[in-house]
């Protein structure tokens, strides 16, 4: 509904402006040749009323247009978030751009191009109908003007598509360079040439070319309408003399640039809109399928599992329902890759089975991968724990923190993000284990939990993992093999 109101008000705004222009020109001419007794008051009132209608429709169009744009923005963003939640994001720069630029462009559609283009087309139709009503000759000139405008719009549309594609490429290259540049922020002090600030020159160039294309087409439109005007005056016979109505087609041609210019900016916004749609449709995402496996799991089998694109050999093994299993191997032998492939986080060939049932590609609800370097979100300690279970209560959070040796973090609302309390490497590892405990799944895949830990904590962690492994399978990838750990089964990736 707000979209239709926006469209109507934008058309009224344009129409009132055009009629105002023509009517005031007629009024001035009529005053010059007016006979005694001419009623000046009525046309003056009409001019004033048209001006007021134009102003009111302009404000109304902006009000409803922006209201509608904000509603659309919210809907589109939520839709995109919902989509991203079901997928793995492969290129963060592209998704960030899609979230900002493409969504804004799509939300703008009604005020940026639909209303503008519809308004200009409506104006043309009204001009054609009005001129046909007055005289076939006027109609001929307005029809010629319409044909010229349509040709120019089409030409401009084609040209804008080319420039918009270059602008989109330049923008995404700029986004990627900026992303890399900001990621390298901790190394800027080394002063390497590759840390040079990304330049947006190519984006500005494309935007300038877009503006030049509009200006150039407007110039052609102006020149064409002037040529039609000269032709019309030249072909006019004496019968028009003394008739103020003659100013109607004159004003239409004279002001053609003003009332038809919106069509060109609408073209530009339209091609941007098309690009935004393509960009959103082709986001580099990988679908995540979640498979709920039986709980408790009684056995797990990996057959010839090999992570795609990683220089590691395929692995086969049968794992028990509970206890600790160890994946050993030198650095780069593929321990992390294998755990991620088992978890379904990265694509892999081969198969995974739970209780003899093959798992489809993607994540499996029964498994929890504990990263080598757990991510700390920009939020409070509690928010960082609730990632594993949104229903976590504060007493439960305290219990888990205590169990993983983080009991000294007593403020659950302590901010852990940028500028807040920073967790050390060892604390981050314990945060990852706390999340695994909170998620409470029958299989844990734990990546390098012992790296960088002191002997005392390593011992405590072994005890805790041992206790947890009574009711679940814990597959640990580690190049450290603590003596305190009772290992049920182990596989050395270097031996294959
Ligand atoms: N995203 C990736 N794309 C391509 N190759 C990768 C990727 N990640 C890792 N690799 C490569 O896969 C191999 C195995 O890496 P992985 O991290 O699994 O080894 P790892 O045994 O866990 O090593 P570490 O003990 O040092 O953590 C390495 O040669 C690594 O360079």
From TrEMBL:
Residues 297-496 form the ABC transporter domain. Residues 4-233 form the ABC transmembrane type-1 domain. Coiled coil: none annotated. It is a multi-pass membrane protein. Keywords: ATP-binding, Membrane, Nucleotide-binding, Transmembrane, Transmembrane helix. It is found in: Cell membrane. InterPro entries: AAA+_ATPase, ABC1_TM_dom, ABC1_TM_sf, ABC_transporter-like_ATP-bd, P-loop_NTPase, Type_1_exporter. The chain crosses the membrane at residues 41-64, 109-130, 136-154, 216-235. One of its GO terms (molecular function) is ATP binding. Its main location: membrane. It holds the Pfam family ABC_tran. This is ATP-binding cassette domain-containing protein. The lineage of its organism: Bacteria, Pseudomonadati, Pseudomonadota, Gammaproteobacteria, Alteromonadales.
């Amino acid at each position: 509904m707000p979209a239709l109101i926006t469209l109507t008000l934008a058309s009224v705004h344009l129409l009132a402006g055009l009629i105002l222009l023509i009517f005031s020109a007629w009024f001035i001419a009529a005053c010059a040749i007016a006979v005694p007794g001419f009623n000046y008051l009525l046309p003056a009132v009409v001019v004033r009323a048209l001006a007021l209608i134009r102003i009111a429709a302009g404000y109304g169009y902006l009000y409803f247009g922006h209201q509608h744009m904000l509603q659309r923005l919210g809907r589109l963003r939520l839709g995109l978030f919902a989509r991203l939640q079901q997928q793995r994001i492969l290129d963060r720069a592209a998704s960030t751009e899609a979230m900002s630029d493409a969504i804004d462009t799509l939300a703008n559609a009604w005020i940026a191009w639909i209303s503008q283009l519809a308004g200009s087309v409506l104006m043309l139709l009204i001009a054609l109908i009005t001129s046909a009503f007055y005289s076939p000759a006027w109609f001929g000139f307005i029809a010629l003007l319409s044909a010229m405008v349509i040709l120019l719009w089409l030409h401009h549309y084609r040209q804008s598509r080319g420039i918009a594609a270059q602008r989109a490429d330049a923008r995404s290259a700029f986004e990627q360079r900026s992303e890399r540049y900001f990621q390298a922020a901790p190394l800027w002090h080394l002063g390497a040439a590759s840390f040079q600030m990304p330049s947006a020159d190519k984006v500005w160039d494309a935007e300038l070319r877009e503006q030049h294309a509009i200006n150039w087409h407007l110039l052609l439109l102006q020149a064409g309408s002037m040529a039609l005007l000269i032709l019309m005056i030249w072909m006019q016979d004496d019968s028009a003399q003394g008739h103020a109505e003659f100013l109607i087609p004159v004003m239409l041609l004279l002001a053609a640039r003003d009332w038809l210019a919106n069509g060109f900016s609408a073209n530009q916004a339209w091609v941007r809109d098309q690009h935004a749609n393509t960009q959103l449709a082709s986001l580099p995402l990988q679908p995540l399928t979640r498979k709920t496996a039986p709980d408790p799991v009684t056995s797990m089998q990996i057959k010839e599992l090999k992570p795609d694109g990683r220089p590691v050999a395929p692995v086969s093994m049968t794992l028990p329902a509970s206890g600790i299993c160890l994946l050993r191997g030198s650095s780069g032998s593929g321990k992390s890759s294998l755990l991620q492939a088992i978890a379904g986080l990265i694509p892999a060939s081969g198969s995974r089975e739970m209780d003899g049932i093959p798992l489809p590609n993607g994540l499996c609800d029964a498994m929890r991968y504990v990263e080598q370097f757990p991510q700390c979100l920009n939020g409070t300690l509690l928010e960082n724990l609730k990632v594993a279970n949104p229903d976590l209560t504060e007493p439960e959070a305290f219990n888990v923190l205590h169990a993983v040796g983080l009991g000294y973090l007593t403020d659950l609302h302590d901010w852990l993000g940028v500028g807040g309390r920073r967790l050390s490497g060892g604390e981050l590892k314990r945060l990852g284990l706390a999340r695994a405990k909170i998620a409470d799944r029958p299989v844990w895949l734990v990546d390098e939990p012992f790296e960088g830990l002191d002997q005392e904590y390593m011992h405590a962690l072994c005890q805790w993992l041992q206790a947890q492994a009574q009711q679940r399978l814990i597959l640990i990838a580690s190049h450290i093999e603590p003596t305190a750990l009772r290992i049920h089964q182990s596989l050395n990736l270097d031996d294959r």
